[in-house]
Design brief:
By secondary structure, the chain is of the alpha+beta class. Helices cover about 25% and strands about 35% of the residues. The protein has helices at about 1-10, 15-40, 140-150, 190, and strands at about 45-50, 65-70, 75-90, 110-115, 120-125, 150-165, 170-180, 195.
Length: about 200
């Protein structure tokens, strides 16, 4: 009887079963961390590259600025869809940047593909279009003069959506701007708009 009491009176940390449980939990956590690190390392990543050429403006024609969407990841991006925008912005104002999965009604140009393999790029063209109809919006002479005088700047931005091999949703946001004269512009929000997701599970 005394031996049984002594056995039950032992502290929990002297029970070898607890060490096995702890070892199992640590091993499971290491496996879990390595698995998700692998998922993150091998997922697709979409990079948006603007053209190296300065935009060519012509009054009476829509503003057009080419963009490249490149999969710089290690696996294919599926169900790719990108929306592109370009606008003339007053120097003291930021561009009208869209929210992710936003409900704002506006027009855009877009590029889509069922799959984008690693190192493959898609060509897109951001154009100035009318907000209501989506038809071309020509550059006016007044807008051109404001750009040349440094009273306005051009902003081009895009939102790209895609999925990975596990059907997890991903996104990339991009914004770039161009000024035709020296001086300060309120493009801080444009620079901060450049971002990517860190989704793993959904």
């Amino acid at each position: 009887m005394s031996n049984k009491k002594a056995e039950f009176s032992k502290p929990w940390f002297r029970n070898p079963d607890w060490y096995m449980i702890l070892l199992t939990l640590v091993t499971a956590w290491i496996f879990y961390s390595q698995y998700w690190a692998m998922r993150l390392d091998t997922r697709p990543w979409i990079q948006v590259k603007p053209s190296d050429q300065n935009p060519v403006l012509q009054v009476g024609k829509p503003i057009a600025m080419p963009l490249q969407f490149v999969n710089v990841g290690k696996t294919p991006a599926k169900r790719f869809l990108a929306y592109m925008f370009v606008e003339v912005v007053d120097t003291d104002k930021p561009p009208h940047l869209p929210e992710l999965e936003g409900t704002e009604i506006r027009s855009w140009t877009r590029v889509t593909s069922g799959i984008v393999f690693p190192s493959v790029s898609l060509e897109g063209l951001a154009k100035s279009v009318k907000a209501t109809s989506g038809t071309d919006l020509p550059l006016t002479d007044a807008e051109y003069q404001r750009l040349m005088r440094g009273e306005a700047y051009l902003a081009v931005y895009a939102v790209a959506y895609y999925r990975d091999a596990f059907n997890t949703k991903h996104w990339t946001t991009f914004c770039g701007w161009h000024s035709f004269t020296a001086g300060n512009v309120s493009a801080g929000p444009c620079t901060a708009y450049n971002n990517v997701d860190d989704n793993i599970l959904w």
